[in-house]
Fold:
Amino acid sequence: MKLWAKIFIGLLLGALTGLILGEKAIYLKPLGTIFLNLINMIIVLLILSSMAVGITNIHDPKKLGRVGAKTIGIYLMTTFVAIFTGILLANLFDLGQGLHLHVENIPPAKAPTLSEIIISIIPTNPIASMVNGNILQVIVFAVFLGIAINFSGERGKPLLHVLESLADVMYRLTSLIMSFSPIGVFGIMAWVTGTFGLTLLVPLFIFLGAYYLACLIHMVGVYCLVMLKSVSKLQVRPFLKGMGDAIMMAFSTGSSAATLPVAMHCVQENLGVSKNISSFVLPLGITMNMNGTAIFQAMSAVFVARAYGIPLDLSSYITLTMTATLSAIGTAGVPGSGFIMLSAVLTSLGLPLEGLAILAGIDRLRDMATTVLNILGDAAVTVCIAKQEGELDERQYYHSELVEFKDGTV
Structure:
């Protein structure tokens, strides 16, 4: 049985068990916690080794700059489109109109400025960054480390061999840990369903439904039709099929960071992306390409404003776009982080933070769709850039599909 099928069965059984046990399902939470701890255990070393090696594999400095510029440019562009989609659907469905919010004191988060974000990504102590799990700083250090190894020539080869060995070991460790994923997913879903139940969907059904629709529109329109079909000239079905394991992992854990090892495995083994491209583009996407979070923050801001009868003018929407972009970039790839950063967006617009209270009830269900969209976006950008750079094995991409190639083979 395929791993994604086992994960899906674990997800369904966990949800059913949670409904039956109710609040007692919290006793199954350690199963999920242990599994997530195992994933978190390998993330820092996996990113450090794989990304540094990925940089060293791009020997041409011009190519490195070109790939980096493409990656960052596409990530920013898709984030702007995501925010626009969220604002459009929030107004289309008139979210929050006539809804009475309960007052609850929630400490605000300071909205980060552009200069603060730029300064914060440069590590003063890379060891401390790894210990604290600051993924963005680890990525920056890995990039500089890979570049320095390239410039060091033969004297840098011993360190490169160590990093290559570490990367291979981490890939193998990822496969071992993933064999326990169905059990971990079962524990997570049992706890979530037992704690929140299904009745929480009733008062917020329109908001949650509109959000899921926005994610679907963004995925189909931006990732599938534009990036894969139009730009990369690739079929969509093999992409979605190849990302099956990562989709189930993202939906069940709600963590982009926890899903990164699985996503990296999927794009390399199932979709045929070279290691040096995937090792550079995917980890960068975990911290920069939070399209699902951007949609949520845009829709939530409109929702809260409508609920309190506060009008939003053009300047408010411009502020919302800029703040949501910076917040999405600065959001950690862990469950619930997008909800925490939402307080920064509301603060920048002068909206009451009490609006967070009612959204807290559906945050876990919202986070599932958010993480799936984030991971698929990272993978689509990786495939698109790999195709443009000639580092996509199309036969491996279409490994289970009948496709006629230019040389006449099928």
User: Anything to note?
Assistant: DSSP finds 19 helices and no strands in the chain. The mean pLDDT is 80.
